[in-house]
Amino acid sequence: MSAASSTKRSRPPVKAEARLRAGRPNSALAGIWIYLALFAITLAVYAPVRQFDFINYDDPEYVTSNPHVQQGISVHGIEWAATSRDAANWFPLTRVSHMLDAQLFGLDAGMHHLVNALLHALAALFVFEFLFRATRRRWAGAFVAFVFALHPFHVESVAWISERKDVLCALFWFVTLWLYTRYAERPEWRRYLLVLFSFCLGLLSKPMIVTLPLVLLLLDVWPLRRARSWKRLILEKIPFAVMAAGAAVITYSAQQASRAVKAFPLGIRFENALVSYATYIVKMFWPANLAVFYPYPRSIPAWQPIVATLALAAISFLVLRTARTRPYLLVGWSWYLITLLPVIGVIQAGAQARADRYTYIPMVGLLVMLAWGAADLALRWCKARAAIVTCAAAACACCVVLTSMQLQYWRNSESLFRHAIEVTQGNYVAEHNLGLAISDQPGRLPEAIAHYQAALRMQPESVEARSDLGSALAKSGRFDQALAEFETALRLAPDCSICRANLAIAQGQEAQELFEEGVALAKAGKTQEAIDRFEAALRLAPDNPELHNNLGVALATLGQIPLAIREFQAAIRLKPDYEDARYNLRAAQSQR
After folding, report:
1. How far apart are CA 118 and CA 46, in angstroms?
2. What is the pTM assigned to this prediction?
3. What are the extents of the domains in the chain?
4. Of the residues 166, 235, 283, 342, which has the maximum number of CB atoms within 10 A of its CB?
5. Architecture field, domain 414-506
């Protein structure tokens, strides 16, 4: 590595930024106030999450129904976290953080939420620290950090406990960039290893950080201005690239094993990727109708990818044309395009068209373009400064209001998915999860069934929705319909163990109901009708000794002794210590 040979070599001063370097007596105090305000306002805005619940979407798999997590920190748990490919992903450090939360707070959802908010606030601090250290533009960096901390696009990453991986990964992303800036100031092995270690922690948090080696090369162009020996710069990124490639391979294999990689047609994947790139930009400026899930479209109107392509091409052309005079535009735009690549959907994992959480790190690139563009305008045109400051303050204030509003939808599963249904179309995931959210509430089972049925009208192949509909129908006593749903689910997914278990439960419930009807009919003297009920119940639950015994009693009452003996013997085979069946068998044999 050439880092040692470059020890003590400082990067040259940045011309445009030199005039704005902190040198006034109050500059340090201003920096402290920015840190305090950024941290305090972020936590204040997200303070309501202390009262929020777990969500029934991913949270059970990650925390509430995960025995490894609920046991807290242990050697066995850490081994599981390091090797687990559950949830179609690999993020051992995130899993350990959930274990630590469980160790400290149990299943107190509010405290789990607050940890997410704290990590988000820390990430925002390092956004500012990295940008200020790299460019010495305090107020531009502060604007980016404040919008990053307060933008409603990021509510999903912070208010969703399962997205711990987002906030933890982002924290290490920006810590890594800050450490890299320090390394660029004075290249030496110790600093280089710290950068590499922080990057490793980021990979263990969420593999989306795999694009960071490319971003480091971008930073070498601007603002670090190290692009004098590309060979040396590329060589020092090789360890990062090797680690990133390893994490990418592990993640892809986990997604393949969990069948999370979806086989959508290649054409529509490219179209959706282009539309998503453009949509994220629009939503950054107009964050309306945000939802936890956006269904993948069956088709995309032809004009959408055309308009998206033209818009992206126009921005790219302008950025390249001004690359020499405004390198921050090239770096910010490239940051946005590159960091979205792992989740833009060319290789599709999951059934979502796009997701708000995917913009958590990429949006910083767009904000850098905006903030440094405004700062340059203020330098060139003094009259614009007041307007720029006013617009920046208004943007931050709007973010606070919009984020506070968006945050309220995340109170619980019902409010979250009801809102998603209102602002999207064909959202079968929201319909299904809303049904789950209300199915256990007294008197709301019919409403839950209606939402399951709505989900299946939108996505008939949804095995999970069909299985849950079957369970709800069974709870309401509609056993024939329930069994039909379970059987359909098993035809769609023959290896679905949950569907098979639910089918067995429903069969047992119907058998129990038939058994009770049979007992009542037998007591009323309607023996033949009782026999019909017992036989129907046995077709559903052939291993139930009580059913065999009661059928035998009913048969003996009608004088069908040989058949009664056979049933008593079956009951005893299933339950050798069944005294009632033994007594009835002896009585029947004495009547031969």
Report:
1. 9
2. 0.86
3. 38-408, 414-506, 543-590
4. 166
5. Alpha Horseshoe (1.25)
